[in-house]
Amino acid sequence: GYVRCVSAFARELIALGAAGERVAIVLGNSVDTCIALFGTHAARAQAVPLNPLYTEHELRPLFADAQLHAVVYADERAQRVEALADEFGIVHRFRIGHAHRRLAAWRDDATAALPRPLPRADELATLQYTGGTTGRSKGVNLPHGAVATNVVQREALLPTQRDGERLLCVMPLFHVYAASMCLHNMAHARGTLVILPRYTPEAAFDPLPRERITIFTGRPTLFTRPLNHAAFSRGFFATLRLSYSGSAALPEELLRRWEQATGTPVLEGYGQSEAGPVVSFNPVHGTRKPGSVGIALPLTEVQIVDADDGSRVLGVGEKGEIRVRGPQIMLGYRSLPDATAEALRDGWLHTGDIGEFDADGYLYVRDRKKEMAKVSGYNVFPREVEEAPYRHPAVAEAAVVAVPDDYRGEAIRAFVALAPGARATPEALIEHCRERLAPYKIPAHIVLVDA
Questions:
Q1: Other C-beta atoms within 10 Å of 300: how many?
Q2: Could you give the angle at which helices 382-390 and 252-262 cross, rounded to 10 degrees?
């Protein structure tokens, strides 16, 4: 049924001249989002998934950059999207919601087949806007060949069980992580994707036993909240086989607590929009290393180079910038030749992330290059400092930033949210960090926050 929906939407887009053009998708998590993405691809148009929570101010530069041919949007976002569509002269509009059409309702034509020819490997599939750390969002051009290859590469390290997997998608589908690890993953596995429209700890619990979920995928905060929730019970995880974590670094203590509580492993991986997106993962069959993002996918080369100009390849245990080469890498940034030349050098994608290899070839991501702090001349990566407060039993979440300091150049400030009912003073937490960190890495201030 859903293939017919995809076919029908693709044929309508083709009739509107969308082939080779860009189609924005401004929808929350729903079946309609999946149909819109696949339908756009089948029409040989480039899908432009955008955050439905963005304001008109945030969407405007993306609409301007993408030069859109059509836009698919939710009822509740109509006012801001239609105002922008008027501004940029976008004639073709698909308003989705209970009061309007639903892409998932197109099931009346049993003869509907996917349009031919289907896209070539070198044609553009997705324009994925990524925030990065500086400046305006950059649009990552991903061709069909890169996206399809990355699915098979990931499957080599994280094999799925054909026709049997049931994956709970709590991540936003406009994000490259959920598109790859949830939507493309389950389509390839011929599995079932159970889509959570909006995340709350309670909402994430309920489908687990009812939908017989076998794979849970999330980012660190999504693992934190269920563990701290009063309703948490191992019974919720009776059918769970494994979990994926990505999109941000998962503290080792959090990984240990999740595995202990659920009795199932968490496999941590690494990627970014520019890399199709997956670069490495801890394998299902093989050694898993807590704190590591695993080994490089097949056909993927990863090196650590000096963080200054990236000209020198570093050895085992040396921290530097991660660079990647492989068939899943982006073609470049849309309309940003200078940024493309900076990121893609001699066939390598320079990620802007800091990492190191151990002797077994396992990659450890230490931080964003831009977020590195310089304390009394020492390089300090917030990620390694965050591990210390996480090991305190009262701490639910921690985040570390650098702040200007007259004496040290920069100092470390930690923001900490305590677990429900737990108590700890900033002084006690600093003392706890003192036992685990070199003096220059110890937070100069700890600020307690609700969340």
A1: 21
A2: 40
